[in-house]
Design a protein that fits this description.
CATH architecture of the largest domain in chain B: 2-Layer Sandwich
Helix content of chain A: 25-40%
Low-confidence stretches of chain A: none
Strand order of the largest sheet of chain B: 5-9-3-16-13-14-15
Order of helices and strands of chain A: EHEHEEEHHHHHHHEEEEEEHHH
CATH class of the domain at 61-116 and 171-216 in chain A: Alpha Beta
CATH topology of the largest domain in chain B: Aldehyde Oxidoreductase, domain 4
CATH superfamily of the largest domain in chain B: Aldehyde oxidase/xanthine dehydrogenase, molybdopterin binding domain
Structural class of chain B: alpha+beta
Shape of chain B: globular
Strand content of chain B: 25-35%
Number of strands of chain A: 11
Radius of gyration of chain B: 27 Å
Number of helices of chain B: 18
Distance between the termini of chain B: 71 Å
Oligomer: heterodimer
Strand content of chain A: 15-25%
Chain lengths: 326, 763
């Protein structure tokens, strides 16, 4: 660890300006649950830490029938999952939040930080100068790749570690990104990037850009949603794979629906084809079976992770059955 | 009273038999009758409970001395290398750096047989390169980064099968197979045995490398006072550490004091002096300050031990009516970079009645951290394979697996041809089978409807754990009637403080509050062995009883003299001695102690000899009920029933702690834990507690414990067998067999992870 400046800006403009334009120079500090590990393990060696916690306006959860949810980026995961509206209307998000990490980490970790966390790949986190850290090779390709991606990979094969991001994709969420120049709103599906587009980052944020809010549109009354996280042990584990779905149902028909997948790709993964097929699908186990078989058709598993394909498909089927039972 | 003699004592400790001369007690005491006991056998709360729960317990990790320096270790980043050049000049210049040791300036101290404390030939990722002391850990860590090392990178091998090949990179000049040949055991005629068999099962099973990962990392604080060295150490064996440190530093043993009060676990990884302790002592002497060294979690996962992996090719034969005719094992395991045991054949040699047995085992050097004993070394691996084979054989001959095991029950140790002092395994089978509902298991395997399939499996267990001499305990009675026990054993978190206090409280009939126990201090305590091999309670508790009984005799003698009566006229009850009959006269312990004119009365108790001509073993069985999600491959353990013959239970609460801990650790080995090495770089990937997956409370099953034994009076005056290791031995095997019962497919390698289950289900 090298010495770093600790900067305590009072507003976003100051924060953005002090973050500067230089990659690797400054890191944003919210809950710190990922940041401290990155610094301790020398994945990151920032020149400055910019503490966001003194900036007003990033801690609230607001809801209106027209706008839906507006969540401040510094809202803690535990705070968000306990929010009445989240519990009533956004089951998929509530479940994903509650399945994240451990109670201690959920009490410290923020929703903004969760979306912007870095991958857990053991080469990236370990003593390996891998592609994502500026090196020449991805050690996972021919190495120990059981937990790596089955689709969207190359030349790096990480998976994105966030649970809430997968849930939020099915809710058509968006984020507000602020910088010294102003603010912009981006759909969450356009927020994450694949290694082929940027090998060093997992999202579109440029130096000085800060996620300030997460927006979740309102859902109709006929909406059901859920999240299944599959991990090897009972708690405190990242997803091997996960599946989220949000469905609008009328009688025996899914009017509209979205599914998303974690643990399979370098970004939270959606397949337009699957979402199209959900539209108008009648509620029958056979339909769910054949739909699930279509998931990740383009996957190219590495030599140790082909098991993720049946796993994801079975879990999607299970989730759809659960959500449509009643 | 106080009769003793010196004998040759031999008993099994962790990986092998120990043999040494021991002074033993020749005193005979009446066998304890469970119904009459008031303290022993009762669920007494831990005497250290308040300290632990309140956070006031001082562990070695917490020891702070005035003017203490902090040390860190530079470790080799490569699996195999030689130091061509090392330069510490830049590091030395950092303000706050106090001293640096490397192979260039440290004394050449022999370590691991053919290696040294600092060896320029680095045989694994994590091997020690330099040792820095500084004003604080942060400065020491900065200094590590400024030490310039020019490594000659050497070819490496991290897989035992690869390392056994002739052209494999060599760790030592004489090759990678320890001793150059397998360790072989044979009885009967294996070929004849297989000829007699009407069914033969042959299978290869594999187990992974498991890391101890105790809560408290390995750590020492060392302090020199002139030529007198005091070491606070997180250790299972204060005398083992004292002797090693005294030897390598060429100090009289009397000038080395090793202290350990509380410890956050070890599981076998802290049975010997660590290099870090000696390095700290060397540097502390050089800089004239106390030095603290505590390893971090990464170092814990690289450098301080593991359960070696195993590849076990097993073959078994049985007759149609369920008699085992032959058992054969060919196996190998990786000892890591330095000598260590990797055998696992005792299970097959001893568990079941079988006249024809042969085992061939190879211990192989690879470029990875060295193996150490780990809670029932060899047995946990061996039972996973043996019990799977037994189930496969039972299925082949169409016999109930439990009935097959009962049919091959033996009351004699077949390796040493001796009867067991006690063996109540058949009772354990019966009680546990009923509790789990063995009859209701899915038959045939895999026949549950699914997608969640239930299954039940079982595994027997055998271990030594009878302990033995030498083990001594001093008992001091103070003038107010309070008592202190002093013994050179150590409480490694299992409840030794509590059970020893119970024994003294029982014999002297005084409240627990009046008994203090001091353990883990080589300067003041008489010798006891290391806390390992499930030997602490069976070795030390009889010495405490001997000391307390001697004290009781002393008190009776004192009272008789004072009251002018013969001892036969006196009765000892509840800490008061009184005369029989009318006109009762009485004296309390306190009054006698005062009258005797001594401030302190002292006795020293000794563990008696083990009985000649017997084998002492503990026995047990675990039944596991699992649920396998056939759509995800996830195995959930719902319930474990554990039934044991472990002699006398001194305290049901500490017993329950031990069995719960063993089962949870066994479950971790069965389902989650694995050291993973990158095949291309030879570097360990699982160096933190996220990637190295220990079980969580959510993975913990319902646990039902049944004890079928009472005290085994043939062993000792307390009749105890140890339970620490037996608790873990059968768990992975029982889970493995339960998974087979659930899905009808056998997962032959541990851990049983979802990817393996899914792959097996799809095949």
């Amino acid at each position: 660890m090298r010495y770093f400046d600790y900067i305590q800006p009072e507003n976003i403009k100051q924060a953005s300006e002090s973050a500067g334009r230089d990659w690797r120079k400054a890191l944003l500090y919210a809950g710190g649950t990922d940041l401290l590990g990155l610094i301790k393990n020398e994945v990151e060696s920032p020149a400055a830490l910019i503490n966001l916690k003194a900036i007003p306006g990033l801690n609230g959860i607001e809801y209106s029938e027209r706008e839906g949810l507006t969540i401040g980026a510094l809202v803690k995961l535990s705070q968000l999952s306990a929010h009445e509206v989240v519990r009533e209307k956004y089951s998929v998000l509530e479940q994903a939040l509650k399945e994240t990490a451990s109670p201690q980490l959920r009490n410290m970790g923020t929703i903004g930080g969760n979306l912007c966390q870095r991958p857990r790949c053991w080469y990236f986190r370990g003593d390996f100068h891998c592609l994502r850290k500026g090196g020449d090779i991805c050690y996972a390709v021919d190495g120990e790749n059981k937990y790596h991606c089955v689709i969207g990979g190359g030349p790096c094969f990480i998976v994105h570690p966030s649970d809430p991001a997968v849930a939020l994709l099915t809710l058509d969420a968006g984020v507000t990104i602020a910088s010294a120049k102003g603010t912009k709103r981006v759909a969450l599906k356009d927020f994450f990037v694949l290694p082929e587009d940027d090998i060093y980052r997992e999202n579109i944020l440029q130096p000085g850009e800060i996620v300030t809010h997460i927006h979740v549109p309102p859902v109709s009354e006929k909406t059901v949603s859920g999240y299944i996280k599959f991990r090897e042990r009972g708690a405190w584990d990242f997803a091997v794979v996960s599946v989220a779905a949000t469905l609008r149902i009328n009688g025996d028909t899914i009017i509209d629906g979205k599914a998303a997948f974690g643990g399979v790709a370098p970004k939270p993964w959606q397949e337009e084809k699957i979402n199209q097929k959900l539209k108008g699908l009648s509620v029958k186990p056979g339909n769910f079976e054949s739909l699930s078989a279509e998931v990740l058709k383009e996957a190219e598993p590495l030599n140790q992770n082909a098991f993720k394909l049946p796993l994801v498909r079975n879990l999607l089927k299970r989730l759809l059955v659960q959500l449509t039972a009643s | 009273m106080a009769d003793s003699k010196i004998i040759k004592s031999k008993y099994f400790f962790e990986e092998d038999f120990t043999e040494e001369l021991a002074e033993v007690s020749a005193n005979k005491y009446a066998d304890w009758n469970k119904k009459e006991l008031k303290v022993v056998g009762k669920p007494v709360s831990r005497v250290d409970g308040y300290d632990k729960v309140s956070g006031s317990a001082v562990f070695t990790f917490d020891v702070i001395l005035p003017n203490m320096a902090h040390a860190k270790t530079l470790r080799c980043p490569h699996p195999h290398a030689k130091i061509k050049r090392i330069n510490t000049k830049k590091a030395e210049k950092i303000p706050g750096v106090l001293g640096i040791l490397t192979y260039e300036n440290a004394p050449k101290i022999s370590w691991y047989g053919k290696s040294f404390l600092f060896d320029p030939h680095l045989r694994y990722e994590g091997d020690e390169v330099a040792f820095v002391a500084a004003e604080n850990e942060r400065i020491a860590e900065q200094a590590l980064k400024l030490i310039e090392v020019d490594y000659e990178i050497l070819p490496f091998v991290t897989d035992a099968a690869e390392a056994m090949k002739k052209d494999a990179p060599k760790l030592y000049d004489d090759g990678n197979i320890r001793g150059g040949k397998p360790s072989v055991y044979e009885r009967g005629d294996i070929d004849k045995g297989f000829e007699e068999a009407s069914a033969v099962a042959e299978q290869t099973y594999k187990t992974q490398v498991e890391i101890h990962n105790p809560t408290e990392p390995h750590c020492s604080v060392v302090n020199w006072d002139g030529d007198y060295l005091t070491i606070w150490d997180s250790t299972q064996g204060v005398f083992s550490v004292r002797d090693r440190v005294a030897d390598v530093l060429k100090l009289p043993a009397s000038r080395v004091r090793v202290i350990k009060k509380y410890m956050g676990g070890a599981f076998g990884a802290k049975l010997e002096a660590g290099k870090y302790t000696v390095m700290a002592a060397l540097l502390a002497r050089k800089i004239g300050r106390p030095v603290r060294i505590a390893l971090d979690r990464r170092e814990m996962n690289l450098s301080v031990g593991n359960r070696p992996d195993s590849v076990q090719k097993l073959k078994g034969g049985a007759t149609k009516d369920g008699r085992l005719t032959a058992l054969y094992q060919y196996s190998y395991g990786a000892a890591g970079a330095h000598p260590a045991g990797a055998g696992c054949s005792w299970a097959l040699r001893t568990m079941y009645l079988c006249p024809n047995v042969k085992t061939e085992e190879y211990t192989v050097y690879i470029n990875a951290g060295r193996a150490r004993p780990f809670r029932a070394p060899g047995h946990v691996q061996g039972f996973f394979a043996l019990e799977a084979l037994i189930d496969e054989l039972a299925e082949k001959i169409g016999m109930d697996p439990l009935e097959f095991r009962i049919k091959n029950h033996t009351d004699r140790d077949q390796v040493f041809d001796a009867p067991y002092t006690s063996k109540l395994l058949l009772d354990a089978y019966r009680v546990a089978a009923e509790a789990i509902g063995w009859k209701n298991r899915p038959q045939p395997a895999g026949s549950d409807a699914g997608p969640l399939k239930r299954g039940i499996g079982m595994s027997s267990q055998i271990w030594w754990g009878g302990g033995g001499p030498p083990a001594y305990a001093t008992l001091k009675l103070n003038r107010d009637g309070s008592v202190r026990i002093i013994a050179g054993s150590q409480d490694i978190g299992t409840g030794t403080y509590t059970i020893l206090a119970q024994v003294a409280s029982e014999v002297l009939e005084i409240p627990m509050e009046k008994v203090e126990v001091l353990l883990g201090d080589t300067a003041v305590a008489p010798y006891c062995g290391s806390s390992g091999g499930s030997t602490t309670a069976p070795s030390v508790s009889p010495a405490v009883r001997d000391a307390a009984e001697q004290m009781k005799a002393k008190l009776l003698s004192g009272a008789a003299a004072h009251l002018n009566v013969s001892e036969s006229q006196l009765v000892y009850r509840n800490g008061v001695i009184h005369t029989k009959g009318k006109n009762k006269k009485s004296m309390t312990i306190r009054e006698i102690a005062r009258k005797m004119g001594e401030r302190v009365l002292v006795t020293t108790g000794k563990r008696e000899a083990n009985p000649d001509g017997y084998a002492i073993n503990s026995f047990g069985v675990q039944f596991a009920e699992v649920e396998v999600d056939t759509e995800t491959g996830k195995v959930s353990v719902k319930k474990i029933v554990a039934a044991y013959d472990i002699g006398r239970v001194l305290n049901p609460k500490t017993l329950e702690n031990q069995i719960h801990g063993g089962i949870i650790q066994g479950l971790g080995f069965a389902l989650f834990e694995e050291r993973i090495i990158d095949r291309n770089t030879g570097k360990v990937l699982t160096t933190n507690l996220h990637d190295y997956k220990l079980p969580t409370v959510k993975d913990t099953p319902q646990i039902d414990i049944r004890i079928v034994s009472k005290g085994d009076s043939k062993i000792s005056n307390t009749g105890v067998k140890g339970v620490g290791e037996p608790a873990m031995i059968p768990t992975p095997a029982a889970i493995g067999n339960a998974v087979y019962n659930a899905i009808g497919k056998r997962i032959k390698s541990l851990p049983i992870t979802p990817d393996k289950v899914l792959t097996a289900l799809q095949s």
